[in-house]
Amino acid sequence: MAGGIKTEIPVTIMNRRVIGTVEECENGVVRRSNKRVLYIRQFEIVMRLKNRASRHGRIEDYHSFLLVIDALDLVATGRSVNKEISLEKNNNEKAISKKKNTHKMFVGDDDSIQIVRLLEQTLTSIDGVAVREATEALDRLATELPHFPYRLLSIASGGENPSQRVAAATYLKNFTRRSTGIEGTISEVSKEFKDQLLLALLQAEPAVLKVLLELLHIVVVSEFVKKNAWPELVPELRSAIEKSSLISSSNSSWSTVNALLVLLTVVKPFQYFLQPKLAKEPVPQQLESITKEILVPLVSVLHRFTEKALTTKGLGELELEKTLHIICKCLYFSVKSHMSSALSPLLSSFSRDMIRILDSLSFDWSVTPSDGNLMRLKAGKRSLLLFGTLVSRHRKYSDKLVPEIVNCSMNIIKHSSNISRLGCLTERIISLAFDVISRVMEIGPGWRLLSPHFSTLLDSAIFPALVLNERDISEWEEDADEFIRKNFPSELEEISGWREDLFTARKSAMNLLGVLAMSKGPPVSTTNKASSAACKRKKGEKSRRNNQRCMGDLLVLPFLSKFPVPLKSYILDASTPAAYFGVLMAYGSLQEFIQEQNPEYVASFVRTRVLPIYSTPDVTPYLVASANWVLGELASCLPEEMNADIFSSLLKALAMPDQVEISCYPVRVSAAGGIGSLLENEYQPPEWLPLLQIIIGRVGSEEDEDGILFQLLRSVIDSGSQDISTHIPYIVSSLVSNMLPFLHPSEDPWSQAILGGLETLAVMAQTYESSKPAANEENNQATGIWVTGQGTISRALSSILHHAWLTTDVPPTSCVDHLSMMLRFIVIASTNCNELRLTELLVVWADILASWNGWEESEDLSIFDCIEEVVGINNKYGFRSFLFRDMPSPPAMPVRPQSVAESIGSFVSKAILEYPSARRRACSCVHTLLHVPDYSSDIEGVGKSLAMVFSEAAFSRFLGLREKPCTLWRPLLLVISSCYISYSDVVEIALEKVISGGFELWASSLAFSYSLTFDATPALASEIKLYVMTLVKVIEQLLDVKHGNATDDLARKCFVSLVEASQRLKELNEETDDDEDDGEPGEEETESEETDSNDEDSESDECEETEEEFLERYAKTAAELENSEVTEEEDEEDDEHEIDLGSLNEIDPQKLVLSLMEKHHEKVIKLVPSEVISTFLNSFPVFTSLFSKCL
């Protein structure tokens, strides 16, 4: 083999097979690492068939070619074996196909045909089972076939029909995503596959292209961004773009749009910082390469295409406009976070081309835009986003462009008066233009440039965007929720949505108005070298600027005061209410400015400009709704003495009925938002009942409105708490009566309104329970009233649970957490298990828990509270179904159903395995289930089965965390301890079932965990008591004859931990006794708040955080998060939750330790270091006699 030539041939991807080495020798034999033999002559046959197929495009040639390839165990799609199959030949293949105007027909072997058949089955089958079977068959083929990805890519490129091609591309994308590792990288992707993928992308049809681009994104992030292992990508992509149809002079089959979309996918990951631990992240090497090799040449292409697009129109208009749009997107993503050295000199060039594109946009609402015009608008939108980024992030390079950017943006926002007639995309462009001007105004040069035009800007651009228009009125009636979301966002989740999504010209104009009102002069730079000097002169400059009046005083308020409050005499003038709607929207945007005014000014402003709306006869609902929103926005800065008048006005609006021609739904919703803001700012109305009556009276009128009312009611309950508790029985009874007609058990899941109502009932039950008066002679009357109310609430909640669970054969699984809170309230209020059909409810509830898989939908832990109460009521009154359920009557199958305890155990074990946030609380529940119930009559062995299930679940979860110690070690190990104390033989079997040597591993971890977890975090007395009792039993087991001397080292560790834990338990008990002797602690003295104003002044004098300081803090936080030892998400709120040991509480752990020492003190002397024994005897002198001979 000497003298042979070695060539690396990557035979597959996704770590399915290794890369083989091919050696070409003089005798013509080619050998590979897997010992398969190929022949040079066969390679020549393959190449001849390939070339002939390329020249003539004949189906039979392709068929022969593919058969030979399959015979040689190469890729079924005909991937190239060496460099002889060049890009030019692939171009010829596609050129032939394009001339025939058909897709290259896919022809493959039996395996490929089977893949096609399975893909078709996933598309055409209406049976879910058949689709699942086909998917599982594809999954099996993915592991069995060595070239599975290549076959899928071939089908995606040359399948018989579009749906087949899309299905293949989709499965290939999902297959690649599943192969992505924990760090977001794929184990292995061959160069061959990447080349084939790139070729497929350049010629794919739009539907397939979209899916393949998602696949490319996965590969690019893994291979190019994270591993930088695709050096050929940039030069090959540059070559593809140069040879594409619009850019190349030749008749190329490669689409320029496709090539640029590939570039966009490659650039997109670099729009964000990739190394959060670095305060000053350098420009990534890959982005520098892309910029130098591709983006810089594309700048001249952008200029040429811009000239062509603005001067000519032809058949290729749409593709040309698409090209402009994609180039603009690529440039935007490339500068969003970084500025490449090669691109910065060209900023002015491509920025001016983008300005020309923006100047060419049409805002003529009377003309329906063509597809080409829509693409032009998208290019304009991306240009404005880029300008905003340049002004905010790259001032060093963009300051000279600011005048041109401002002039272009000003020309756009002057069309704001027509936004009601413009399309959404055009309005978005106007919105972005407002945003660009807002950013420009926040820099010194920009403020100086804009200041002469402030008056024109306010009068001709900002205010026209705020005025009520025809689209607003149409949306008010046709889609009120959308109108509210855009114009009256509040903290009520159902109506606000994501506030970042409110991309409207009105919101952007309001933001600009807020910036304008607060400005007092050119902003002072606090970045780079100027930051330290700015901080030094901060105080003097602040006092000087505070004496300077801002634009809100000088311009904004005087302008708005020109518009009078609409009175009855203005009803016939439709323009007056429309204009005043804009005035109120403007006031809502001035929250920051109004907060700086004195209380007398704010009070006068609200009384004269807002509250008169509510007393005006026949006032239009549009103004009332906007006034509600303004009061909600200004709630944090309203004078306290005005809150009562404002609350009264909002209450009036909340009760406003619909008018004949106008719905008042937005009025009531905005009023609810305003009242919620007042309550959030700690306003307490003198009387809660009027508000509660209005809310209850309207529930059930409209489903959309019910969700808002329920959320407002929860806010009222949270704010009023004790003051409202006396009204809760009436509210609950009324709500249940209103909800029952709309609650249909057959619907699963229930509507959002019903879910909101159930959540509200649960919150009210919880609030009423916490309001229970203390039990003493003075409160006998109050306690009697409370108990009566408890019974009323219990009966109402019972009726809704009966309706939801007992009126259908298959109870719905919706809202289990809130229904569990209601059931808990009923259990606490009950005096026996037969009351209110409680036993039936508990059985159904437990069955639902056993099959519940809603871990990702809710993180509410109320279910565990209910479990603890159910175990308690079983101990108190006893109900047979807790441990045993009768066989069902015929015709049901003769299978004994799970008992309530078994169903709860199934739920808890799944929580330990699957639900990180509930894991700690689930572990606490295990102790309650094992030690609180009385298992003396457990004829079915329920206790043993629970111990088996719990120990297996906890030990399996512990093994997953064993490599990196964390705070979850303790609860998991203590779960096994509880099981072991009660059923040691069962637990040993369960641990050995999970892993060989499981018992010794658990015992060793238990001993090791004391110093690791009990010393690191505070431990509860009940936990250490359980720990001591478990170690005593483990040591006795280890010293048993069957374990021999092989466990001496483990026994030594357990003895040492037992000594330390016994000492700590004694200390905790002594601390508890001291606290009881001291009596109840007195009230702590509160600190004076006289220094608050001084603290605020000192805070305001501090230098604002600069960009560099922010990035340094961000990098430090990122490093801390990465280096932290948190292994998974968990709930830390229950760290202080005492575990309930039930019958184990009667055991004295000190007596157990004494008994152990008396029995094995000689073994202790041999195993435990003498200094540990001495320390132990200092704490427990009673043991001195046992060790006196050896000390």
From TrEMBL:
One function term, GO molecular function aspect: nuclear export signal receptor activity
Composition bias, Acidic residues: 1070-1110, 1122-1138
Keyword vocabulary terms for this entry: Nucleus, Transport
Annotated region (Disordered), positions in chain: 523-546, 1066-1142
Gene3D superfamilies associated with the record: Leucine-rich Repeat Variant (1.25.10.10)
Subcellular location: Nucleus
Signal sequence, renumbered to the chain: none
Organism superkingdom: Eukaryota
GO cellular component, one term: nuclear envelope
Main location: nucleus
InterPro entries membership: ARM-like, ARM-type_fold, Importin-beta_N
A Pfam family assignment: IBN_N
Domain Importin N-terminal: 134-203
Bias type Basic residues, positions: 535-546
Protein name: Importin N-terminal domain-containing protein
Species of origin: Capsella rubella
Biological classification of the source: Eukaryota, Viridiplantae, Streptophyta, Embryophyta, Tracheophyta
